[in-house]
């Protein structure tokens, strides 16, 4: 009965509603717009299962490291020691890394961008839109009221050059004003940042988001820390696998083809039940 491009869902439950919508309406491009508190706290269970099932939906997770709409409580991405209305003595929680969580849940597309980076954000969103399956894009977004300046260090031109790690498929992972820093393998399935002069060009990791094994994308998501010393941006993971909604619709069609629906036959059939009080 509605002619609209969007709707508000119950807080935290948008992935569940989107799952039903994507399954029933394959003609639609279904997008979920959520925040770090909404998606990772009350909606955490719904988020991980939508990603695990590879439902054909796109989830934009706006991360400002605070509960913005509900007036300034600390969120699952707030840093240790952060003073908020609900943590006047400082948070004692260990924050989530949203991308690590998504990759651990087997999301088939995982990306990150800054809200102020029009070019980078556009590229990631276009790729997510074309991807068939679950796509999660973490977007660093400032909250001018309750957590102003959370990502200012990434928006300063000089600081950004030594902190942001732009990922480009098929290219060695390098960054810095002169490309003097790079990413190399470290230990067992780990990655670390170092100077290219010390690492050697031949030892730089060539970015490939299509690697099926999640350990590579997971290692990428672990580069840097809550202090934003190093922040990979772009597409961390992009793999193809069957989607939940495609398979569910295929099962319905298979059932229809195998047996013609007969409501009257079901109502008047020989199956009976005896109810004993």
What would a concise description of this structure say?
The protein has 11 helices and 9 strands.
How are the SSEs ordered, and which strands pair?
Elements: H1 14-24, E1 30-35, H2 36-42, H3 44-53, E2 57-63, H4 98-104, E3 109-114, H5 118-130, E4 135-140, H6 152-155, H7 157-163, E5 164-166, E6 174-175, E7 181-186, E8 190-195, H8 196-199, H9 214-221, E9 231-238, H10 244-258, H11 263-267
Parallel strand pairs: 1-2, 2-4, 3-4, 5-9
Antiparallel strand pairs: 3-9, 6-7, 7-8
The total beta strand count reads 9
- CATH structural architecture: 3-Layer(aba) Sandwich
Order of the strands making up the biggest sheet: 1-2-4-3-9-5
- Please outline the major beta sheet: 6 strands, mixed
Q: What's the pLDDT, averaged over the residues?
A: 93
CATH domain topology = Rossmann fold
List low-pLDDT spans. Answer: none
Walk me through the structure.
With 277 residues, this protein is α/β, with parallel strands linked by helices. The protein has helices spanning 14-24, 36-42, 44-53, 98-104, 118-130, 152-155, 157-163, 196-199, 214-221, 244-258, 263-267; strands at 30-35, 57-63, 109-114, 135-140, 164-166, 174-175, 181-186, 190-195, 231-238. It has one domain: Rossmann fold. The chain contains 11 helices and 9 strands. β7 (181-186) and β8 form a beta hairpin. The protein is globular and about 80 Å long. It starts with 13 loop residues before the first helix and ends in a 10-residue tail after the last helix.
């Amino acid at each position: 009965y509605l002619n609209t491009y969007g709707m508000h869902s119950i807080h935290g439950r948008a992935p569940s509603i989107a799952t039903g919508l994507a399954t029933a309406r394959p003609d639609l491009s279904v997008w979920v717009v959520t925040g770090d508190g909404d998606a990772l706290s009350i909606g955490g269970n719904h988020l991980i299962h939508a990603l695990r099932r590879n439902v054909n939906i796109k989830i934009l997770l706006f991360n400002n490291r605070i509960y913005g709409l509900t007036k300034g409580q600390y969120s699952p991405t707030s840093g240790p020691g952060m003073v908020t209305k609900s943590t006047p003595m400082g948070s004692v929680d260990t924050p989530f890394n949203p991308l690590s969580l998504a990759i651990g849940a087997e999301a088939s597309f995982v990306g990150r961008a800054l809200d102020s980076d029009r070019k980078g954000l556009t590229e990631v969103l276009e790729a997510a839109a074309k991807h068939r399956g679950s796509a999660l894009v973490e977007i660093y977004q400032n909250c001018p009221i309750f957590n102003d300046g959370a990502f200012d260090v990434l928006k300063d031109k000089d600081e950004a050059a030594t902190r942001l790690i732009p990922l480009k498929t098929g290219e060695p992972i390098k960054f810095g004003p002169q490309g003097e820093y790079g990413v190399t393998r470290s230990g067992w399935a780990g990655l670390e940042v170092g100077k290219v002069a010390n690492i050697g060009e031949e030892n730089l990791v060539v970015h490939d988001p299509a690697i099926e094994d999640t350990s590579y994308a997971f290692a990428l998501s672990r580069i840097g820390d809550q202090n934003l010393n190093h922040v990979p941006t772009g597409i961390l993971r992009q793999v193809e696998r069957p989607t939940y909604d495609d398979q569910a619709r295929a099962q319905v069609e298979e059932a229809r083809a195998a047996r013609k629906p007969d409501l009257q036959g079901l109502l008047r059939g020989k199956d009976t039940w005896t109810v004993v009080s």
